[in-house]
Amino acid sequence: MVTHPIPPLFSSSSRILILGSFPSIKSREEGFFYTHRMNRFWKVISTILNRDTPETIEEKKDLILSSNLALWDVIASCEITGSSDSSIRSVEANDLRSVLDNSKIEVIFTNGRKAYELYGRYIEPVIGRKAVLLPSTSPANAATSLSDLIDIWGCEIRKYL
Q1: Which residues share a beta bridge with 105?
Q2: Residue 138: count of CB within 10 angstroms of its CB
């Protein structure tokens, strides 16, 4: 079993929660979300928000918190091979109450289908809130271009900004 090493990133004014499935090896090593250089998350979010793409963890934290966003993942611990979502087994879900009870979350988005499926299986029945599926920003999702990610994510996220 691998345990999620990154705490949720949110503030009391966060209104949009974005959930991934589980951190990649690189993110687990760095101790922060979406640190693999090929993951397009930071480019997508910064473009939608019309901000410079953050480079450091502090810049990334500032971008999320200053935009009333929140980040975390669906899974608290699991069996996983490398960074592959398809290898995830024996899932224990994160308890989202610490975020939901201490923020103003209006909408929950999932970054990719695996996060969406696991959210629906493990979290939605507990908290009674649906999530909105967004295409994965992972480099494994080569079928969706950066411009398509920006268009799709932007269309959904801008409704709540």
Answers
A1: none
A2: 22
Residues 109-144: tens digit of each pLDDT: 999 999 999 999 999 999 999 999 999 999 889 999
Residue with tokens 């507990």: 126
Nearest 5 degrees, angle CA 10-CA 118-CA 47? 45
The rounded distance, in Å, linking the Cα atoms of 91 and 67 is 30
Residue 32 is classified by DSSP as: S
| Sign, CA torsion 98/17/58/36 | positive
Kindly state the tokens that stand for 18: 């974005």
Distance CA 95, CA 28 (A): 19
Domains and CATH numbers, the chain: 2-160 (3.40.470.10)
- With a CB cutoff of 8 Å and minimum separation 6, the contacts of 150 are 43, 44, 47, 48
Cβ-based neighbour number of residue 115 at 10 Å: 25
Tokens 């918190």 appear where? 65
Tokens of 16: 């949009």
Strand runs (DSSP E) across the chain, as ranges?
2-3, 16-20, 69-73, 75-79, 89-93, 107-111, 132-134
pTM here is 0.97
Instruction: Tell me the two tokens of residue 151.
Output: 């268009």
